[in-house]
Design a protein that fits this description.
alpha+beta; nine-stranded mixed β-sheet; 11 helices
Amino acid sequence: MGSINVFSEFLEDLPDTDEPVWVLGECYSVKTEKTELLSDVHSRLWFTYRKKFSPIGGTGPSSDTGWGCMLRCGQMILAQALVCSQLGRAWRWRAEGGQPEEYHRILHCFLDRKDSCYSVHQMAQMGVGEGKSVGEWYGPNTVAQVLKKLALFDDWNSLAVYVSMDNTVVIEDIKTPEQACLHTHGNRATMCPHSQSQSRSDWRPLLLVIPLRLGINHINPVYIQALKECFKIPQSCGVLGGKPNLAYYFIGFVGEELIYLDPHTTQSAVESEAGSGVDDQSYHCLRSPRRMKITNLDPSVALGFFCKSEGDFDSWCNLVQQEIQMKRNLRMFELVENHPPHWPPFVPPTKPEVQTTGAEFIESSDKLFESEEEFEILNV
């Protein structure tokens, strides 16, 4: 019943403009498609700080307030890929319930418990392998590397996560990893864990993440139009970024402002039994979507794109060449056919052999609380 008030508050908050609003590859008119626009924004899974979950690693923090905002944004970009994969981009959430089984199964992947595939527990502990202590703040690239590893343990979605290196997307590494292994290993191609022939039918749904630095202290204005184009591409899965020590999940833009979901709200962890529905009201942001001027964006970002099929990826490559590379003086990133010979060998990700609990890496709780207080001060 409060929805109507939330809707009207949002509409007043949106600029009264003839400019289109772009949300994850979909275009809306504020004046004629308000309801559809709101429904789209409200349907995105919204992950925030949580408290009162089981301690990470058994003895670590039981809340991620003050340090987990980029992990939550990573969860949001991954959840968007899973929703597109399992339910389709056109799927919409209904507050009254009646969601498909796949929706609840996706939510279960992100619950704040150690056995959920993409929980804050799993992400924080996998981050130890990336040189991050539990309770330490992540940047966009680190969270992308963590998602790439965790996806290997998710047999249900069998999502491939590709994180680009050095501002370069290598088509060969994505489409035919065995060829990339051959080029980079030379005669040692047989050692490559993925050197078996990959047929066209072996394509797995792809989350493509491109970590970039688009300036020194602020985004260089020369990249702004290209960044906007990313939200227009049908394969858009959003952008990780924000301001120093404040991570946001950007889902679109209107005019010169970015639209984002903000994880900086602390809610209690949700309990749910395996196989049951999840009380999902707190996983959708029904208040006004936040907006910020593009020029205030921190230059460190990670672009996200989801390609369910190989045809989607081919289409994405064509659009990037036309809209982002040919029309710009300064390219945001490079798209190349073959693995550069001077790069280290391409090795497709494989499951880590040993999984640590992460508990032995957690610093003393006193030090943890000190760092949380620092971040809270930064977040004020």
